[in-house]
Amino acid sequence: MEAHESVGHHAADVAVKPQGNNLFIVDSKQARYIDCNNMPLPFGPQFVADVVNRTHVAENQAEWLLAAELVIKAQPGAKRVTLED
Predict the structure, then answer these.
(1) How far apart, in Å, are the Cα atoms of 32 and each of 2, 23, 44, 47, 48?
(2) What does R_g of the chain's alpha carbons equal in angstroms?
(3) CA-to-CA distance for 79 and 45, rounded, in angstroms?
(4) Which DSSP letter does residue 41 get?
(5) Is the pTM for the entire model greater than 0.85?
(6) Burial track 35-57 (b if 16+ CB lie within 10 A, e otherwise)
(7) Mind listing the pLDDT tens digit for each residue in 31-82?
């Protein structure tokens, strides 16, 4: 994993990185950036394997059901946002 690179303690400008697979971790003390382009991304294959094999490697059922419940509850209050260049 690439070392954490500080991007300031007030805000992280997520638009400064042109490539994808960026991770910005922001809390009340600092903002950190991790370039994830060369990191393995196992969740997708693990999730598919969970569905096929009825296992719980990528995410356990309780977590998945909670995430689905939160999405369903949030959708009625969602607003479409259009970003301009």
Answers:
(1) 12, 8, 25, 28, 31
(2) 17
(3) 31
(4) -
(5) no
(6) eeeeeeeeeeeeeeebeeeeeee
(7) 888 888 898 889 889 989 988 998 988 888 888 889 899 999 999 999 888 8
